[in-house]
Every structure is written in C-alpha cells, then in structure tokens.
Design brief:
The complex is a heterodimer of chains A (264) and B (304).
Chain A lengths: L1 H14 L5 H16 L1 H18 L17 H30 L2 H6 L4 H32 L7 H25 L3 H18 L11 H9 L1 H13 L6 H21 L4
Helix pairs in contact in A: 2-6, 3-4, 3-6, 4-6, 4-7, 4-8, 4-10, 6-7, 7-8, 7-10, 7-11, 9-10, 10-11
Chain B lengths: L3 E10 L2 E11 L4 E5 L6 H9 L6 E6 L8 H7 E4 L11 H9 L8 H7 L15 H13 L5 E5 L7 H16 L3 E6 L2 H7 L2 E6 L2 E6 L1 H8 L3 E6 L7 H4 L4 E7 L2 E6 L3 H11 L5 E7 L2 H9 L8
Parallel strand pairs in B: 3-7, 3-8, 5-6, 6-7
Antiparallel strand pairs in B: 1-2, 1-4, 8-9, 10-12, 10-13, 11-12
Helix pairs in contact in B: 8-11
The chains are: A mainly alpha (264), B alpha/beta (304).
C-alpha cells in the first residue's frame, strides 16, 4: 500500500493539467456511443438513406404552389434532419440512460464528486454533437446532389435545431422517468416517434395536409421545427411563433422530467 | 473526535420502517462492521451516509460534513462501493479508472491500485468481459481511487472465491493501516470476525448489540466447552467437584465439560495430577455467529 501513497503525490502534481470531469465524461460517453454504434448508425445513416430516397423522386424537385413555388425537397431536408435528431435523442439516448439507471451506473456516479447530473449533461452534449454532425452531412449532401440551398440563415437554423434537441431530450427523459425498464422505454419511445414523424410531414408534407392537421402539426415539436427550419434554407429567420412553440415544448418537458426523473 | 457520527437515524419507505433510531460513532482508523440479516436496514443506513438517500429524521456527520449539504466536499473524501452497481458494458477497465481518477483532487495512482488488487492484467478488458470477482475488485478499486479518508464498502466480498476473499481482507487491513476509516456492511460472520474492530449487529432497523466481535461472542456464552476422549477408568466426579466446572457429561469415550473461563486450566491440572491423558482435547468458544443467532434469532449466511 505504500506504493499507492507515494504515487498519489505525483498524481496530484499531474492534476493541474488534467481536463475537467465534464470533458472526460463527454469524451467517454462519445466513445461508448460509437462503440454501441446504434446512435451513430441510426441517427446519421437512416436520415442519409431517406435523403437519397426522397432525392430520387422527381416530383419533389418540382416547384410547389403550396410552398410558395419552392420544391418539396426544401421541406424534406429538415424532415430527415429532425428524424435523425429524434432517433438519437429520443430512441437511442433514453435507452442508454434507462440502462444506466437499471444497472446502478447513475447511483454510483451520485457518490462521486462528478455527480449523476453531470453524466446526464455529458449525454446531452454528446447527443447535440452527433445531431450537429448529422445535420451538417445532410445539408451538404442536399446542396451538392439535390441543389437544396444551404441554411444561409445559419443562426436561425442552429437555434431551431438546438431547441428541437432540447424538446426531444425532454420528452425522452419524461419517458425514461415514467417507464421502469429499458424495454418499456423503447416501446414508449417508438410510440412517440411515429406520430411525431407523421406531424413533421414525413409521409405527407405539412402544406399538403388539411388545415386542421396543419394546425396540429405546427403545435407539435417536430412539425414546428420542420416549418421553422425550412425557412432558414431560404435565408429567412424562422417565425417567432414556431420558435416559441419549440421553447414551450423544451421548457415544459425538461421541467417535467426534472420533477419525475428517478435516479434508481 | 469521531470520524463518523450517526445520531437517531430513521428512515421509512411508506409504512415499512427500514431504519429505526440508529446511532453509532466510528473512530479514525477503525474498521466498523454493520452486520445483520437481509432486509435489516444495513444498506439504507449506509445510503443515508453516502447521501444517496435522505433520512426521515436524525443526523449523519462524516468528518463533520453533512452528506447532503456538504455533498461536494464529502464525495472528495468518501470512497463508496455499492452493492450491485455496474459500469457501461463497453467501458475498458483502464478508462473507468482514468475517468474516476479525474473526479478527485488528489487521486491515487490507479496502476498501483489494480496491481494490489490483482487486476493489472485486465486493464485492457471491457467491463462486460470481466468475471464476477474481477468486477467486484474493480468496484473496490474505484472506491479507493480517490484516496478517500473514509470508505464505505457494502457487501465487499460477495461473489469472490475464498482465496480472493482472503486477499481482499488483507487489502482492507492494509488500507486501514494507512489511516483510512472503513465501514463494512456484511452478512458474513467470518468477515466481520476477521476484519472488524467493532461490529453493530442490526436487526429490523435497530442496533441490537454493538461491541468488538470477541466481546459480542462472549456476552451470550460466558463460558467455554471442552471435549476430549478419556480412558474407561476415568471418573467424571473428579471434574464435577471443581468450582470452575458447571457440568460434566460422559457419552462413550467422549467427555464434555462446560464451565467458566478458567475451566481449561482447572481441568488439565486435575487430569495431569491423576495421570489421565485427555486425547483429542478441543476447546470450543462461542463465536460471533452464536451471538448473531442468540441476538437476532436468525441464521446468518456463513457460505454466502
């Protein structure tokens, strides 16, 4: 044991140069996420495949009256980006967090100086990074291959994406709070995923829905996000109404998750 | 000053009382055992100490720190090994140790630590590929990686084979020798007897006895039992007349003598005087397990 005591003093001189616990946690969570491969493959691969599928449909490149003369591809780019975000934040991440809770990982972190909250923060940062990478891949390929303009209203694009991720994480954490096992969480995640994707216009673009359905779509997080993001592709800042809806969803679900979330 | 002060701690889950007015103090450098049957409230007690659970009433101070109010400071000096806690499956052992080291101001050198624990060959292995015993040893390493002043170890050697268990006991003794105060939650009598300076016997949320393992054993069986084989010519009356002897029973060749603490000296002196050789002489003293049985009316788990 004397070896440990002497070695600890050299460790403390090293401490000054060490990265902070949060940075270490983010790097570790990122590595684990890549090793689990579900989030990167689903969250980046699936949107990419869908982009190519939609891109190959000629009708989506025709000017559309309901979209102010722009082709429907302008809407499908945000749709596939938000689908990727939903897969990363809602499906993959809630599964990981529930498994952490089930297996006592969160409890164990709760007894270290880092704390379990910091682990959640690291998970959020990793998800955000993955969503940003995925979004970058999609908009670049959409520009190069399908001539969809880049989100020149960059601030509006990033803001919309950020708020959408917060809302999705909030919903995911709420699901993880009410469900006991990872299996139930996955089921509930899918149950939320499909309706949310419907209202984002994955199957039927929002402008082609009936007026009632359009209203409902705009009130859902992904419907609002798609509509807001489509504007940024044209270079305009998204209407505050849609950003407000996203803020509402993000705040409400995160506060609810904060109340409901169980650490064990 | 006591390193740990637990006063009138109580905690109920709904209508089930898990901890019912528990108080104890632990001195610096002591190995303090919390022993009791499953569901006695041992884990809830230490969870209140670790800040994982809020007590209904009473107080906990570790190095004068409150587990909730002084959480940031306490976690720096308190090492914790939880019963049944896992790491992410695909985390490598070295990554886990690196990560946990980074949380502490003055971490131990984990390479030396894993060497002591016999895990140095496994640092390049993923958590899910470790055996039960290796996971347990990693969990001990993670509890000690922050160079804690106090360590709370819950079911330390569960899942270890007898040899690994002995090694772990040696390790714990070694850590105590460095001045670390240790709280050991266990249901192994042998472990408590071997390691602990003092033991709190917990049953149904209450401390039913608190003393050194030897004193606990003695408290319920003031006496001693001798057993030996004697020749047919041996007369039991020789011994039953002795003041230190309470009973003598002869069954075949076997003589069983019970008496107080002096019975061994008294009996051997008399036998020597009469030139009787007590063959296969065995002395039996009450053990911690006897105390446990007497005080809780339950069987402890000797093998685990």
């Amino acid at each position: 044991m004397s070896a440990i005591t002497t070695a600890s003093s050299t460790a403390s001189t090293r401490a000054a140069r060490r990265p902070s616990p949060l940075v270490r946690l983010v790097l570790t969570e990122a590595k684990l996420s890549l090793r689990e491969w579900i989030a990167p493959v689903w969250g980046i691969g699936l949107p990419l495949i869908l982009l190519v599928v939609f891109g190959s449909i000629g009708a989506l490149h025709q000017p559309t009256a309901s979209l102010g003369g722009r082709p429907l591809m302008y809407l499908y780019v945000p749709v596939v980006i938000l689908m990727g975000a939903a897969l990363i934040c809602l499906v993959a991440s809630t599964g990981t967090l529930t498994a952490y809770r089930e297996r006592g990982v969160l409890r164990r972190f709760g007894t270290t100086p880092a704390g379990a909250t910091r682990l959640l923060a690291a998970e959020l940062i990793v998800n955000l990074a993955m969503v940003l990478i995925m979004a970058a891949v999609i908009v670049v390929i959409a520009r190069l291959k399908y001539s969809v303009p880049l989100p020149t209203q960059f601030a509006g694009f990033i803001l919309t994406l950020l708020l959408a991720v917060m809302a999705l994480m909030g919903i995911g954490l709420c699901i993880a709070s009410v469900a006991k096992t990872s299996r139930v969480v996955q089921g509930l995640g899918a149950l939320c995923f499909y309706p949310m994707m419907f209202f984002s216009g994955l199957w039927l673009p929002i402008p082609q829905m009936s007026p009632a359905l359009q209203h409902i779509s705009h009130a859902t997080p992904l419907g609002a996000a798609v509509t807001a993001m489509a504007d940024t592709l044209g270079g305009t800042f998204p209407p505050l109404l849609y950003l407000g809806i996203l803020v509402g969803w993000a705040v409400a679900t995160c506060l609810l998750a904060r109340r409901l979330f169980r650490w064990e | 000053m006591s390193v740990i002060e637990v006063e009138h701690l109580s905690k109920a889950y709904g209508s089930t009382v898990a901890v019912d007015d528990i108080s104890f103090c632990v001195q610096e450098g002591e190995i303090f055992g919390i022993l009791g049957p499953n569901g006695a409230g041992k884990t809830t007690t230490v969870e209140c100490m670790e800040g994982l659970r809020a007590q209904d009433s009473g107080s906990v101070r570790i190095l004068a720190l409150d587990p909730h109010a002084d959480r940031d400071e306490l976690t720096q000096v308190l090492g914790v090994q939880l019963q049944e806690s896992a790491l992410p499956d695909k985390l490598y052992v070295s990554e886990a140790l690196d990560l946990y080291s980074s949380f502490y101001r003055d971490p131990a050198d984990w390479r030396a630590l894993v060497k002591t624990l016999g895990l140095d060959a496994k640092t390049g292995t993923m958590f899910k590929k470790l055996s039960g015993g290796q996971k347990q040893r990693l969990s001990i390493a993670l509890a000690l990686v922050g160079n804690p002043k106090v360590a709370v170890l819950d079911e330390l050697t569960t899942g270890l084979d007898p040899e690994a268990r002995r090694d772990t006991w040696d390790l714990i003794s070694g850590i105590r020798d460095r001045g670390v105060t240790i709280v050991l939650v266990t249901h192994f009598m042998e472990e408590a007897e071997h390691l602990c300076d003092r033991v709190a016997l917990v049953d149904s949320g209450r401390i039913v006895a608190l003393d050194t393992p030897a004193a606990l054993a003695e408290s319920i069986h003031a006496g001693m039992t001798l057993r030996f084989l004697a020749p047919a010519t041996f007369d039991p009356a020789l011994l039953s007349a002795l003041p230190d002897v309470t009973s003598v029973v002869r069954r075949g060749d076997t003589v069983t003598v019970t008496g107080n603490g002096n019975v061994l000296a008294a009996v051997t002196t008399v036998l020597a005087r009469h030139e009787i050789e007590p063959r296969q002489l065995r002395v039996e003293q009450a053990t911690l397990e006897d105390a446990f049985l007497a005080l809780t009316g339950r069987h402890g788990n000797k093998e685990g």
